[in-house]
């Protein structure tokens, strides 16, 4: 069973980001490029990052209302995405709300992840299904739902989104926070396209487990099957 573990890359400056990228790629074969962490990010920096990466990558520039740190205007953020669109990143992650109000052309060589993040609550199962219905209008290659879990019982909503998904639809479904840690482990075993793990150089959401620990967990689980 091939479980994809994606690790975030962050950094306050371009140089710090590139240094963290190199160190992260030494321990991970799949990275998420969180360029919104870079202060004073410029569109021309994206090409530098693209040339520096050596592993499979998800490119994203997250707004503050979905857990990101981009400090510029929305027009500037869209310009960043349009710069990335001209490069051949393996994946680009764009929020549902962003796609609803902005025209961003797709690169046929890049898979589109349409995402929804909620750091306040986990909506009902049916509300999240409605969100997925909206996402599918943009013909994504992968759908991503990440919500904060305030109570342990809410994990059932996460698992239900995975066990009831259409066989031809790729979903990443994650419960964030302390109560969501088990969803990060079990998600791929229930059909989640990937899971996210942290490194000592980067953590981008509450509840992420260190990549070394995740690898050990999966090694133990899969060796027992």
Task: Provide the descriptors you would attach to this structure in a database record.
single chain, 225 residues, alpha/beta, TIM Barrel, 9-stranded parallel sheet, globular
CATH superfamily membership: Aldolase class I
The arrangement of helices and strands along the chain is EHEHEHEHEHEHEHEEH
Arithmetic mean of pLDDT: 95
CATH level-3 fold name:
TIM Barrel
Number of strands: 9
Q: Alpha-carbon distance between the termini?
A: 10 Å
Low-pLDDT stretches are: none
Number of helices: 8
CATH class group = Alpha Beta
Structural class: alpha/beta
What is the CATH architecture term? Alpha-Beta Barrel
Q: Please give the domain count.
A: 1
Biggest sheet descriptor: 9 strands, parallel
Shape: globular
Q: How are the strands of the largest sheet arranged?
A: 7-6-5-4-3-2-1-8-9
Strand percent estimate: 15-25%
Rg, Å, rounded: 17 Å
In brief, what are we looking at here?
Helix content is 36%, strand content 21%.
Please provide a written account of the structure:
The protein is α/β, with parallel strands linked by helices. The chain has a single domain, classed as TIM Barrel. The protein has eight helices and nine strands. It has helices at 14-25, 43-52, 74-85, 96-101, 125-136, 155-163, 181-186, 211-223; strands at residues 5-9, 30-34, 56-60, 91-95, 111-118, 142-148, 171-176, 195-198, 209-210. Strands 7-6-5-4-3-2-1-8-9 form a nine-stranded parallel β-sheet. Strand 1 (5-9), helix 1 and strand 2 form a beta-alpha-beta unit. Helix 2 (43-52) runs parallel beside helix 3. It is globular and about 45 Å long.
